Amino acid sequence: MFDIKGIVEPETLNEALDMLNKNTSLKIIAGGTDVLIRLHHRNIENVELISLRKIEGLDEIKILENKDIEIGAMTSFRKIFRNQIITDNISILGEAAVSMGGPQVRNMATIGGNICNGAVSADSASTLYALNAKLKLQNSNGERIIPINEFYLGPGKVDLKKDEILTKIIIEKKSYENTKGHYIKFSNRKAMDIAMIGVAVVLIEEDNKFKDLRIALGVAAPTPIRCIEAENYAKGIEINEENIESIAKETMKSTKARNSWRASKDFREHLIKVLTVRAIKEIINKGDVQ
């Protein structure tokens, strides 16, 4: 059923990095929910896999001494939406995690695999964009840390070298402190479907004004995007119905929606405006802003 040439299962990160350094044709498998589907459809064949499942410490969620949050790349979506650190500090990521497929998929799928797959529809991607996430990438010679928006290069393309492993997702204290957010996924079906549009909104309110507003979208361009024009427009203006509608219109300056078999360009743009308004109001109406 699967055209697999072989599979290795290192037990330490150093062992895995050494294997990749010696054999860059190895294909990393995390939860397997993406790779196995590609194998099933013969999109990749005669592949040698390197599984990260046995490596301890890659599925941990913790707050560091400087209050930055670290999420291991092998953390499952089930663990993310059930984790108290996520719930207390970046609940928007928990909302994205619980929207990811059904229970069986969430038990297996990992946040690192979701990111590295490079899919513009990845439920975690737009949320991590809104949280200004950084990614720690390691190889046998060292590590590099890059903003997530520099990681996505195009549809299905990411800046991951053949000898590298994504090990950590970092949310800095300054990027989540005093913020509240909301994620909305719109799909053709109510559950277990790929997002037609994903909207992630993070905001800080001060004196009934937008002190900071971040709007990130999935499936609105070749990669996940931030709506910078709308965010700049929102800074310092009063939180009211008219301004929220205007902010939603400003998001159109950043989008590059297209026609596809799933939805037309016009419908996607309509959804983006409607869901942006809904996400902002959901945060405010719940009294979630600080």
TrEMBL record:
Keywords: FAD, Flavoprotein, Oxidoreductase. GO terms for molecular function: FAD binding; xanthine dehydrogenase activity. The keyword Phosphoprotein does not apply. InterPro entries: CO_DH_flav_C (IPR005107), CO_DH_flav_C_dom_sf (IPR036683), Diverse_Substr_Oxidored (IPR051312), FAD-bd_PCMH (IPR016166), FAD-bd_PCMH-like_sf (IPR036318), FAD-bd_PCMH_sub1 (IPR016167), FAD-bd_PCMH_sub2 (IPR016169), Mopterin_DH_FAD-bd (IPR002346). It holds the Pfam family FAD_binding_5. GO terms for cellular component: xanthine dehydrogenase complex. NCBIfam families: PRK09971.1 (NF007427), XdhB_XDHase (NF043083). PANTHER family: XANTHINE DEHYDROGENASE FAD-BINDING SUBUNIT XDHB-RELATED, XANTHINE DEHYDROGENASE SUBUNIT C-RELATED. This is Xanthine dehydrogenase FAD-binding subunit.
